[in-house]
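Example record for the data management plan.
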Amino acid sequence: MDFAFDNSFHRDMEGFYAPAEAAPPSAPKLLVFNHALARKLGLDIDGADDDTLVRLFSGEAMPGGANPLAFAYAGHQFGHFSSQLGDGRALLLGEIVAPDGARFDVQLKGSGPTPFSRNGDGKAAIGPVLREFLVSEAMAAMHVPTTRALAAVATGDRVQRERAHPGAVLTRIASSHIRVGTFQFFAAHFGAEHVVQLSDYSIRRHFPDLATSPNPHLALLDRVIGLQCELVAHWLGVGFIHGVMNTDNVAISGETIDYGPCAFMDRFSANTVFSSIDANGRYAYGRQPQILHWNMARLTEALLPAIHAVDPADVEKAKGLVDAIPDRFRTHWFARMQTKLGLASAHEGDAELIDNLFGELETHAIDFTGFFRALATLLRGDASELEALLPQPEVMAPWIASWWAELEREDIHPLERAAAMDAVNPRYVPRNHRVEEALTAAEQGDLAPFQALLEVVRAPYVERADWAAYAGPGPAEGAPYVTFCGT
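Corresponding structural encoding:
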C-alpha cells in the first residue's frame, strides 16, 4: 500500500538523520486503530483488512514511498546536557500531506533499535504504547495541541524492563519531530551553518510567513516561545503534568510530544509529581512554567549562531524575548483561567481572584477537574456538587462571593455562562486509577476497559449518566500514584 509520501526532511536534510529499519515482529496483532484520524490524514485504508494494517503499522512491511530514518538530537535531561540522544526506538517512515494541506510525520515507536539506541533494545511495552494512545486522544479532544496516535499493534514479543511485558508498536502522527534538542545537537556538534539550515527548514515547514522577516531565525524563536507559553497554559488548565519536560521532549511545533510518565492531577497540589524518575520535583505541576522558561532559554542558546549570522545586534533582542517569557506566559494563563471561570472579559482584580483560587484549591486539596464543572452547576442553582468536593460546605464562601461579584460585572445570563464554562472545562479526563485499570487489563489480553475509557475521554465535555464512574478521582488512600518513562 502506498501513502503518497512527500519526504521533505529525508530529501532536504541529509546529515540530520540516520537511515534505519524496523525489526520484524514475531506475531503482530492489531490492538486499536484510529479510523477518524486516518480519514483526516487522507489515508486510503477503507479497503484494508486488519492483516494489512498490522503489517504496515508494526514495521513488518514498509508502505510504498517510505524512507525510514531516525532523527539526530541532543537534550538537557533533568538539567544535564546529553550531547547525543536521537531516536533510539523510533522510526520516521515519511511525511504525508493531508487533504487540507497540512503536513504530518508518520513515525513508528517501539519498532526496534536504530543507530541512536545506545545499547537499548528499541522496543516498547504495551502499557506505555496504550497510555500514549489514550492520553494523546484525550488531549486532542480537549483541543490541547498534541501529537496523535494512529495505531497500536502488539508485536507478539516480550520486552524486558523491571519484568517482561508484552511488546507493542505505536504509530505517532506529528506536525514534525523537530525538537529543541534537534537544534542543540547541531549547535553543539556542527555550528552556525547547520543551525541556519535547520532553522530555514523549520520555517519552511511550520511557519512560512516568517521567511520574509528581517531576521527569520529571531522570528522563529519568538514564534516558538509563544506556542510553548500557550501550550503549557493549556496543560495547567486541564491539570496535566507532562512529567519529563527535557529539551528533547519539546517540539518546536507547539504540540505535546512524548507521553512518558505523564498523568492528570486529581486533588490539587502545585507540587504534584507522578514520574518515578523525578525525585526532586523538577517537573511538578506548578514548576512547568519555570521549566518552559528554562527550555526556551536553551533553544535561544542553540539559535544564537543563526540569529547572529543575520544581525549581531539581534542577539540582545533574543535575550529580551527570553526575559519576557514569564509575563508572556502569565498573559496566556490568565486568559485561559478567565475562560474557565466564565469571565467573558478581563477585569482589574482577576489576577488576585485567580491566584487566591489556587491557594484555596491547595489548602483544601480539591479535585481540580470536578471543581470547575461544579462552579457551572452552581450557576444553574445547584450547590450540591460543589459542596460534595469541599471538606466543609462553607470553606470557600469568601472566594465564591468574590467570583460571583466579578460575574455580576457582566450582563450574561447564568445559564448561558454555565454552558460556556462546560464547553471549556472537561467533565472527563484520563483519571489515573482508570488508566491503570485499563492498562493492567490490556496487558492481560482484555482491551474492553481500554476501549471504554477511550470512548469517554474522546468526548470530555458531554456529560452522560452512564459515565458517572469516570468523572471522579480515585481513592485518597493508598500509595502515591507513580508513572514510568516506558523506555
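Summary line stored alongside the record: The first strand starts at residue 17 and ends at 19.
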